[in-house]
Amino acid sequence: MMDTRDCACGQTTVRDDAARWFVRLQEPAVSAEEQRSFESWLDEHPQHRNEYQILQDLWVAADRLPAKRLHALCETPAARSKRRPLVRYAVAASVLAVALGLGLFSGLNPPATYTAEYSTALGVRRHVALPDGSVIDLNSRSRVQVRYEKDRRGIELMQGEVMFSVEHDSSRPFVVEAGSGKVTVTGTRFDVRRDSAETRVAVEQGTVRVQGSGDDFVSLTAGFGTRINAQGKVTAAYAVNPAELTAWRSGKLVFNNASLSEVAEEVSRYREKPLTVGSANVGNLRLTSVFKSDNTDALLKALPSILPVAIRTLDDGSQEIISR
Question: Considering the domain 114-243 in this protein, what is its CATH number?
Fold first, then answer.
């Protein structure tokens, strides 16, 4: 992997690559393969993520400019002559970067209200920058609704799993609702996963308040998590390993003494058909290993050599882990 100095020598190339990715990801249809390539590019060097984040921030800033003003900024002679989408975006970003440097955006605050919905398909992860500088990373098969108001930044996790990196703002709490639970913060980094039977919260940095359907709540600090069941009851805080729980952001599935029932539930998130266990005894077997989330077939092939189990394919195409 290159160090920062190596990357700085090719900064223009990195910015060009960031612009190309930014334009592509604005399109309505992005394949899982393209999304994986984008995530790999982001992970190659911190400068890649930095340059892409700059474009995200500029995009938000552009939304605050009057339409006529932005159109005038983008319609340079070069842009008019080439008329290519990439050139128009690149010119707009360049002009906005200069504008930021000159302080033209000084005094502008994030919009008081903002609504949007973001989702991912099977096998796709998505990185989204919000208007206040907060960032959300969506795991496979996830969907969120965003609603920012004057005194509240609201997110509803409809399904799936999201990593939240929240920009501090004590005047506008950041509230995540998921099933019968609610997580409230002013600025921190945490992961929320919503399943059919429960919602799980794990904190990587800062402090969060997790509340169920009643008045009871749990305060979590870094390295701790909790669960909220379908009835809205919150469990006591327990120690977690945030790096393991959020390994999905780099395309990994990390199992540390996990039961096969837990493994099957997790793997099902990345397959067209669900993976189940054939009996309670099989479900109680434990597994410690690391696999790629985009190749769960490899996990199923390896499992019989690790544990006394076999994989059976059912009539509907789903698969079941059975005793061998």
Answer: 2.60.120.1440
pLDDT per residue over 79-91, tens digit each? Answer: 444 444 554 455 4
Q: Is 138 helix (H, G, I), strand (E, B) or coil?
A: strand
Centre a 10 Å sphere on the Cβ of residue 278 and count the other Cβ atoms it contains: 15
Q: In angstroms, what CA-CA distances link 61 with 66, 72, 107, 113?
A: 11, 15, 12, 15
- Burial label, 38 (beta-carbon count in 10 A; 0-12, 13-18, 19+): buried
Question: Which residue is it, tokens 């842009």?
Answer: 79
Residue 286 structure tokens: 């434990």
Tell me the CA distances in angstroms from 142 to 2, 76, 118, 254, 273, one per residue in order. 32, 40, 8, 19, 16
Q: State how far Cα 137 lies from the chain centre.
A: 1
Which amino acid is residue 4, in one-letter code? Answer: T
Q: pLDDT digit string (tens) for 291-302?
A: 999 899 999 999
The domains of the chain are located at 4-102, 114-243, 251-323
pTM summary value: 0.66
Which candidate, 115, 122, 154, places its Cα nearest to that of 138? 122
Calpha distance 201→223 (Å, rounded): 11
Q: How far apart are CA 292 and CA 290, in angstroms?
A: 7
- Cβ atoms of 70 and 92 within 8 Å: the answer is yes
User: Is-same-fold flag (114-243; 251-323)?
Assistant: no
CATH fold of 251-323 reads Phage tail protein beta-alpha-beta fold (3.55.50)
Q: What's the CA angle centered on 293, arms 287 and 298, to 5 degrees?
A: 65
| DSSP classification of residue 248 | G
Dihedral angle sign, alpha carbons of residues 22, 26, 27, 28: positive
